[in-house]
Amino acid sequence: MKKKIFLLVVLAIIIYAVIFLTAEKSEKNTEEKVKSEIPASTTAERINYFSLHGWEVEEISGKNIIIPSEFSGDYAEYAEIQDKQGLPLRDYAGKNGCLYVYEVRNYSPENMKMYAELITCEDKIIASLVYSEDGGSIRLPVN
Question: How far apart are CA 113 and CA 108, in angstroms?
Fold first, then answer.
């Protein structure tokens, strides 16, 4: 009889732990999804994204692009930066997007111009980066 009670208690603890861990993982996934759905349908929304992270920018160009289906070389490194920022670039592989470029107004190490870029898809921000004018010897995540 004691053995059955002990087994029931152990089983109840295991079930509770599985439910608790599953709920916690689901909550994290929901938080990540909400974080990655940053609106970008207007110039104001895109500039606001940068200002929320302390960057003062001025938009200088925008063009349509196709996000690669597979990431390799520099683009694979770029995708890793986006993963660390919680941005969903990989989810949009092979899709049409838009690349916006901005001049950074409040940061100039060694008197270099700095630029910021933003990739949007379906009016959401999916990638961002700040980099130096010399082709990116300085590369910084936005957030």
Answer: 6
In the numeric block, which tokens belong to residue 102? 């901005």
Per DSSP, helices labelled H in the chain are: 2-36, 43-52, 73-85
Q: Is the dihedral of CA 77, 121, 68, 33 positive or negative?
A: positive
pTM above 0.90, yes or no: no
- Residue written as tokens 């692009």? 65
Terminal Cα distance for the chain, rounded: 59
Query: Going by C-beta distance under 8 Å and a sequence separation of 6 or more, which residues neighbour residue 9?
Result: none
Integer CA distances (angstroms), 92 to 64, 65, 70, 102, in order: 14, 12, 10, 22
Pairing outcome for strands 96-104 and 114-121:
antiparallel
DSSP lists the bridge partners of residue 59 as 102
Give residue-wise pLDDT tens across range 37-86.
Answer: 899 999 999 999 999 999 999 999 999 999 999 999 999 999 999 999 99
